[in-house]
Amino acid sequence: MVNELWRGSLSDLAEAIRARKVSSTEVVQAHLQRIDAVNPRVNALPEVLRDAALRAAARADHALARGVAPGPLHGVPFTLKINIDLAGSATTAGVPALREAVPACDAPHVAQLKAAGAIALARGNMPDFGFRWHTDSSLHGASLNPWDARVTPGGSSGGDAIALATGMTPLGLGNDFGGSLRYPALCCGVAALRPTLGRVARAAPPTPVEPPLSFQMFSVHGPMARQVRDLRLTLAAMSAADARDPWWVPAPLVGPALRAPIKVAMCVDPGAWGVHAQVAEGVHKAAHWLDQAGYGVEEIAPPQIAEMLETYMQIIAADVRSTLLPAVAALTSADTQRFVTDFMQLVPASTLDGYIGALARRNQIARAWGLFQQDYPLLLAPVSAQPPFAVGFDVSGVAAVRALMQAMALSVGVNLLGLPAVAIPVGVAHGLPQGVQLIGARYREDLCLDAAECIERAAAMPTPIDPRF
Fold first, then answer.
1. In this predicted structure, what is the pLDDT of residue 2?
2. Is residue 93 part of a domain?
3. Confidence (pLDDT) at 421
4. Fewer CB atoms inside 10 Å of the end CB: C or N, the chain?
């Protein structure tokens, strides 16, 4: 039935449109109807591009009727986070001060997806400037986890994760500075890919000031979807060169074949801070499925996890103190300011020598990981060592922020080192999704995606869902 098309995966919808079994207009209309039914309950998509999406769908259908060769994403809708440039739509980053910040052109990867035939459908909510792991915007309000409104949907790419989990979109675009793709994917029971730094081209920000070094080194754009093959399809469509990014790398999407069995290091507990039994159970399930699929899984931790977390925090804190604190104080909500203030209390003010030392330590850790990944091309680990936290926990004090940072140690470590990682659900426990991440060596997204597909076949997650409240 046409009104059930919102249940389809990105790949299936693209195939059906190319085969003219359904029209792009029907697909877009089905998702708009789903948004009308669900979004008022979860507040995931603050801007719906209804008229523009329907016009684009009509053009896609007309082109197909004229015999124009379709792109790999011809006529399929997608949503994108509100800090990603889309021509004609404000890049608000969740704050009122940017409600009129309408870019003249698309971000590089958005332009590439449109060239592949995809249609922008709506904008996904996020916390103010992406500073929290919970999606609550001072401009657009809080978004609700469709599994349980009492726990976070994650952040900062939370709106798109919710939209995927509830069938409002088959594809979401977000970005990942400290787990901001992988954590909402975990919380909402969907899949996400954080590509290697340099894989997906980025443009200059819509401000006259370039972002500080940590934002240049740690943040990447990536896709979210309900199936791993959709992540692979989208990555191929959004990873071309763009002159606006001087650091884009022309690395092949598929690396050299490795001798079987590919060794996977399983790290259940990413530190001396403890891991929740529910999280550990999920990692062990994924390890079992990988073992059945022919991977060689060994329980062994990667090097220097504690140092990795400390270095990440030190570099970020120094950059925020030197460039961003006035904007946080002037433009963000009280909760965002509280979270940032509490984070700053965890990290002493850095000197220039300290900052230079942290950058040098980052290089040393990256070298140690490179040697480790020669033996273990994949690392299986939690996205977070704790289940999704209760709404409000992240702004309940310094101890809570410390606990969150420790729980996310391996996730933020991926950002520190610029590595690729795929978050993949492994089931449901106590009414909430369980998930893991697969971390690879630089530009080996293909290995992460291959292993994630093995887990996906065994896990069979029940998304999309209706909100369970």
1. 61
2. yes
3. 99
4. N
- Domain CATH code at residue 60: 3.90.1300.10
End-to-end CA distance of the chain: 26
Q: Are 225 and 190 in contact (CB under 8 A)?
A: yes
Rg (CA), the chain: 21
HEC-encoded secondary structure of the chain: CHHHHHHCCHHHHHHHHHCCCCCHHHHHHHHHHHHHHHHHHHCCCCEECHHHHHHHHHHHHHHHHCCCCCCCCCCCEEEEECCCCECCECCCCCCHHHCCCCCCCCCHHHHHHHHCCCEEEEEECCCHHHCCCCCEECCCEECCCCCCCCECCCCCCHHHHHHHHCCCCCCEEEEECCCCCHHHHHHHCCEEEECCCCCCCCCCCCCCCCCCHHHHHHCEEEEEECCHHHHHHHHHHCCCCCCCCCCCCCCCCCCCCCCCCCEEEECCCCCCCCCCHHHHHHHHHHHHHHHHCCCEEEECCCCCHHHHHHHHHHHHHHHHHHHHHHHHHHHCCHHHHHHHHHHHHHCCCCCHHHHHHHHHHHHHHHHHHHHHHHHCCEEEECCCCCCCCECCHHHCCHHHHHHHHHHCHHHHHHHHHCCCEEEEEEEEECCEEEEEEEEECCCCHHHHHHHHHHHHHHHCCCCCCCCCC
Residue 12, domain extent:
2-459
Positions marked catalytic: 81, 156, 180
Tell me how far apart the alpha carbons of residues 133 and 388 are, in angstroms, rounded to a whole number: 10
- Contact criterion met (CB below 8 Å) for 439 and 303: no
Look at residue 340 and tell me if it is in a domain. yes
Give the chain's residues under pLDDT 70: 1-2, 206-208
The answer to whether residue 43 sits within a structural domain is yes
Residue 336 has which token pair?
């965002």
The reported pLDDT for the residue numbered 211 is 87
Q: Which position has the token pair 């700053």?
A: 344
Q: CA 157, CA 159: separation in Å to the nearest integer?
A: 6
Residue 466 lies in a domain: no
Length of the chain equals 469
pLDDT of amino acid 49? 98
Helical packing angle, 409-417 and 305-319, nearest 10°: 70
Residue 79 · residue 48 · CB < 8 Å: no
Domains identified in the chain, total number: 1
Residue 462 has a pLDDT of 86
pLDDT at 208: 61
Cis ω before 108 (30° cut-off from 0): no
Q: Which residues pair with 223 in a beta bridge?
A: 173
